[in-house]
Amino acid sequence: MSKIKISMSWSGGKDSAFALWKLMNDPNIEIARLHTTFGEESRRVGMHGIHESLIEAQADAIGLPLDKLYYPASGDNVAYEKAINKYLDELQESGISSIAYGDIFLEDLKTYREDQLAKRSFKALFPLWKNNTKQTAYNFISEGFRTLICAADADKIAEKWVGKTFDHDFLDSLTDQVDPCGENGEFHTFCYDGPIFKKPITITMKGVVSKSYHFKTAQGEEVEKKFWFADLG
């Protein structure tokens, strides 16, 4: 039986790192490459705020080729979908027909990914799907992964945690309204060491930056949200 050849959707955070590790231990899977989407102007990963140079360092330490997808800022998914479809053309030419994600329980996101890929006869894999997020967080730490909080919702996470290691103290500080894996966007992480890496990533914490964004609620009301970002180098 031939192995399933995949490209891993790579954010640089703990969920994609843990999902990749599980796939690495699956004898039926061949991980061919990683791919990451970046803002065309910022050269950073979405709400993670991580610069492409650090993602490149991760890929180098893992030992897998990294494909970088760029798209302009826009208020909808059109630019993103255009970039992904162009990338799927490249994957088809290299015999890859599956993409893996680190999603855990967001049903609408899972459905969106599956529907978009199905249009191109691709399959989506979710190694962490429906895992208990509290147990997953503790398992991630116990397996030897090291990651830090690189971005956080200022309403949910105190500034003091930004740039700090994702550990038991951090998990113990969370309220019941915050998912232990930040699955609802409460915080994001950057993985710098662990069993998937041949060497740890060298990072420098330069400080914490705050940025505000405007969102529309389901009721059409416009609200302003502030987020913390670790300035990493």
From TrEMBL:
Species annotation: Belliella filtrata
Keywords: Ligase
GO-annotated molecular function: diphthine-ammonia ligase activity
Listed InterPro entries: Diphthami_syn_dom, Rossmann-like_a/b/a_fold
Signal peptide: none
SUPFAM superfamilies registered for this protein in UniProt: Adenine nucleotide alpha hydrolases-like (SSF52402)
EC number: 6.3.1.14
Identification of the protein by name: Diphthine--ammonia ligase
Superkingdom, natural source: Bacteria
Enzyme class: ligase
A UniProt-annotated Pfam family: Diphthami_syn_2
Domain Diphthamide synthase: residue ranges: 6-205
Gene3D superfamilies (UniProt xref): HUPs, putative n-type atp pyrophosphatase, domain 2
